[in-house]
Amino acid sequence: MAQEGDTITYSYSDGTSVAEDVSSVDEITVDYMDGAGGSSGGSTGGNGGRVENATIDVSNEDTIYIWVANSTDSGRYSSNDAGGAAGASTEISFSNTSQSDSSDEPFLVGAGGGGGDYEGVLGGNGGSRGGNAGAGFFGNAGDGGGVAPPLGGDGGKANDSISPTDGDGAIDDQNRGVVSGGTTIKGGGSPADTEGEIQLSFQSVLSPPDPPSNLTAEVQ
Amino acid sequence: MPSVVYSPAALVYSEETQEVTDPNTGETVTRTSTTEHRPFEVRISKWLERSGVYELHGFVAVTDWGQQMVAQSSPVQWVLNNHQTATGVDSQTLQTWLEGVGAIQQAQLGPILSAGDVTPASYTVTADEQWRFDFQIDLNGPATFNIEWLTVDFDPARGG
Questions:
Q1: Which of A107, B11, B12, B118 fits a 20 to 30 Å CA distance from A31?
Q2: In angstroms, what CA-CA distances link A44 with A4, A161, B34, B36, B93?
Q3: What is the pTM of this model?
Q4: How does pLDDT run across B21-54, given as a tens digit for each residue?
Q5: Residue of A1, A31, A122, A138 to mutate, interface with B, max B Cβ within 10 Å
Q6: How far A131 CA lies from chain B's nearest CA (Å)?
Q7: The complex's ipTM?
């Protein structure tokens, strides 16, 4: 259970989520949240995206779910492998259900970097939660990781000098009203071939309610 | 750059070949990739600092390949017949893997975990009480240590 004053850093956990009990705190500061870098093939993969200094109100939540991505396409949301694998996205959500459930959209995402091409033949994949993949020598582009909202980087481009694109971060409150502040940095996450990471600080900011001042005690 | 970086030992390999055809010209190229296999993996899922001590929470899991191996009627022979092995990996090593997979499946982690050169540190194997939290390693600062064919390099200052 996360406690007041804790700063916890979350690492890649084999593509599955880690649940954190937040019932004893009210607010979380996202110190940093990095998407994974894309895998290198014939060219170096792109950097992951970053979110930092966002605040999450968890006063009405008991649990958050954290996915930390790696650079070989394993995370909560990832694209298929054709050329160099795209970096997967790092995400925080209030729900642990499948990413195909639209009601389960994350509210913070560090998108994965684009994958490098495969020996100048196949284009790399688009970064997860990302945009378009680059075209390969045969026009065989890797699969894009793009789902709405478009948050990631483009894939690698085979047989030319254009490098895979970096992933971006994204803050999407999904109209929940729980996220405030924060900045996103394109390519500010993990470098190519490197796992993502999240660091969160937990606070209790709400004071207990004042007792009523007009109470009287009657002794019988 | 993450604060936890792994350097797994390469143990067993297999090669996979994939043909890719240009839909316009019919030209085909063959793509061959080498895949490394390990029977189980160790991960640090999270860490935190309390009272000057870094608590690293980790877990072990049997890989898909490990499950495939133990499902064979003759697992050791199946590995030797269908894979390339790194130097030093022999039938005795493979027998140890089988025992390790069995230990994980029975939540008996002690036999497969060793603290290696963790200094200074205390090392505790806990019961499998929480998802992704099988054991805890306490450190006073940055350290590099080994857990069963896996070198873990922990440096809190590297994160962020």
A1: B118
A2: 41, 11, 19, 21, 35
A3: 0.78
A4: 766 677 777 777 788 888 888 888 999 998 888 8
A5: A138
A6: 23
A7: 0.76
